[in-house]
Amino acid sequence: xxxxxxxGPEDQRHIxxxxxxxxxxxxxxxxxxxxxxxxxxxxxxxxxDWIRRTLGNMASTNVAMDSMxxxxxxxxxxxxxxxxxxxxxxxxxxxxxxxxxxxxxxxxTLQVIFEFQTLISRLTGLDTANASLxxxxxxxxxxxxxxxxxxxxxxxxxxxxxxxxxxxxxxxDTYTEAAGIEVxxxxxxxxxxxxxxxIIETAGDRACCVVVQSPNFLGIVExxxxxxxxxxxxxxxxxxxxxxxxxxxxxxxxGSLGFDVVCGEAQSFGIAPGFGGPHLGFFAxxxxxxxxxxxxxxxETVDENGSRAxxxxxxxxxxxxxxxxxxxxxxxxxxxxALAATVxxxxxxxxxxxxxxxxxxxxxxxxxxxxxVLGDPWRIAYPESPTFNEFLLVGPGSGAELVKxxxxxxxxxxxxxxxxxxxxxxxxLVAVTERNPATDLDALVGALERLS
Amino acid sequence: xxxxxxxKYGRSHEWVKTVGDSVVVGITHYAQDQLGEVVYVELxxxxxxxxxxxxxGTLESVKAVSEFLAPIAGDVLEVNERLEDEPNLxxxxxxxxxxxxxxxxxxxxxxxxxxxxxQEFLDQESA
Lengths: 452, 127
What we know:
With about 450 residues, chain A is of the alpha/beta class.
């Protein structure tokens, strides 16, 4: 048999005779017949050219984000994509290697991970960051489980803001249910922000952590220092989740404001918005809890010649060595996407990131101002609360209706909150980034005016 | 491998020394040798209660993380706080400054080995 070519009929006969079986069906006899499909009703096979043409035609009926003025966000953001990101990413040394962690042959990859950790550490204001996780939602789950471990499993309650991304909360529910951890949700106040007194009341003396998102799902910036104090007064860890990582270019990371964990989604750093990902989770904590941190960690050391070198560190706590007693079930990282984020951040630089974030903020403020001038029937849901680059817009109809009517006006105006429920008004989450030129803002305001 | 006569031994390689009406627990010279250089020691909280064979904490070396178990039942009276900054004491002085935990209770009546018994146990294990 050829290693790269599938087994032909002759090979199959040979394998079956070696196994002492008469047919392929006999090989799979242990699968209950009730779950087997009895033949697939498929059309005849087509040639490659037909398939390309037909699927290409189907794909061209999709509306691409870049094809009209686009204000979609709600956890996935469109930012500049310098060519250098893909140029480095697509190098075969990075792109094709699998589990490239052996220090003898993988100094490049290990150095990238080390740099990624350093960048996340600086942005979050905490002194330890891991090599990355799958996405923001699983990073948040890991933060909850981490808090449970740090408090030695004595506190079984996770207090979570209603204003974290609703999909993150569903992932949290899935994990915590299996782990026997209770989750209680705290609704925001009338201004869309969390009230520290409500946090303290809800947490009592049973919470292992208080999880808040800032900017929150409604785009609103929370009062992090007060919330950290509230969590700590309850004896719980304070966890911040960030879904729009670019906000860290303008807003201080929770670590410098008293938070014990800052985690979230770094898709904004050089990863194009795509249906189903890939995304990029990050996780940072205080080094005093280093040994409870999930995932991998690259460290800097010296080799036998005294030269600077990198290697994985604390692997002894991971699943492949510690099995069931491992710190977490994460035994990998999102390597290629962490590379994209690292190259993107290094291309931007500190001042570049700040400029980019400022530009997002200014454009959003400009749009908010123009919508306020427009007035009835359009209004901004929480006009007094500070936002970064996203806000909730309420208009004549549900968010789901509005997005369709505005799309027919040539604008992808935002993500409807209609199907997600929540204690806030049904409307559209409108996200503005540096990828929205003034003409996009004109298009949206014009469309809103026509639908007034 | 040194195995002091005055101590009692558990089959998971802990030693027990009676001091008044409490006991001091550590790991044996053999155990620290098997583990290699200890880089971190995770100790229980003072006041917690453990049964025989319960996990008291973990010892992390450069190549593995291992649990150490309670050789007798009791409450944690004291932990060796020096190990936080000097985990190597477990290697350098396993029967002295490298002690791990002080427990209330007594080794009396527990299923422990004396020095000769532990030596025999090691011989069997390595046979």
